[in-house]
Amino acid sequence: MKENTYYLGIDVGSVSTNLVIIDGNDNIKEKIYLKTNGQPIKSICEGLEYMERHLNGDYQHHMNDHIDQKALYEIKGVGVTGSGRQLAGVIAGADVVKNEITTHAVAAQKIVPDVKTILEIGGQDSKIIILKNGIVYDFAMNTVCAAGTGSFLDRQAARLGIPINEFGGYALHSASPVRIAGRCAVFAESDMIHKQQAGHSIEDIICGLCEGLVRNYLNNLAKGKAISQPIIFQGGVAANVGIVAAFEKIFGQKVIIPEHYDVMGAYGAALIAKESMLNEEVKTKFRGLEVAGNNYKTKSIECNGCSNMCEIVEIISNETKIACWGDRCGKWSLK
Known about the structure:
By secondary structure, the chain is α/β, with parallel strands linked by helices. The protein has helices spanning 40-64, 85-92, 100-111, 150-160, 164-171, 185-197, 202-221, 241-251, 264-276; strands at residues 5-12, 16-22, 28-35, 74-81, 96-97, 117-121, 126-132, 135-142, 231-234, 296-302, 311-317, 320-325. It has 3 domains: 5-102 and 266-294, ATPase, nucleotide binding domain (Nucleotidyltransferase, domain 5, 2-Layer Sandwich); 113-257, ATPase, nucleotide binding domain (Nucleotidyltransferase, domain 5, 2-Layer Sandwich), CATH 3.30.420.40; 295-335, no CATH class.
């Protein structure tokens, strides 16, 4: 396999958009974690622009060392995942489109081959994945309650005037954690305010919050499931040492935090893309990193072809329609 052959993974979520480029040995060559900010097309293009700049810059550096200019990189496969995977797949030209359960499981197994339990908490939702003999045996997702997710923790850190990267550390200095109702984001916040007014320290309140949110996570997602080692924790919230400590306290054992915990969905998508493109005769659908410079817009129309009255979303690139979806019969999307 050529040294300059790479694979791209894109994970588009409601809070973050992550891109990863891996080499032929499954090592992460470049990665970027971006805020989606309600504009997934913009964040996808920013990520592609970043990759183009860094890869071109890397090879420009090597060319100055008399490396042949023909040794430019080649992205041979693209995988997309996340709630915005359809959109990412259309813009970038995806070879594989996979759900988050699959991509997170593949990435975790690459890091810890015998992993049994995957805890994943992102910006807006959370999930648990149970594996047996290297296969996803059971899983659960919570996309309804925000308690414990990254956006909720960001909100509480801002309310307390604490940088989010320091928020979890306060929990580690707690002498006597208070009990916070973590079953609901609204209840948790009001309970925190009540405990503040009662005079409890910030450290004890934050520690109690972390423990309450972990109890809520396990009660909602892990009920009836056997939690076995090794346990790996990924997603943006894995950076919160208070949440990690709360998990370890309840489990009574260490939880593994992978080096690239924040982009594991994109990493898994890239790994799956590589696997799918091993056949040298298969050509990638990748449209090139330069598509980030195109002008994209969306248009919504209502189909009057039948009583369903489907709302059709059209994706337009440089005045050319590149995709449609939203129909039930395929009249538009199959075009």
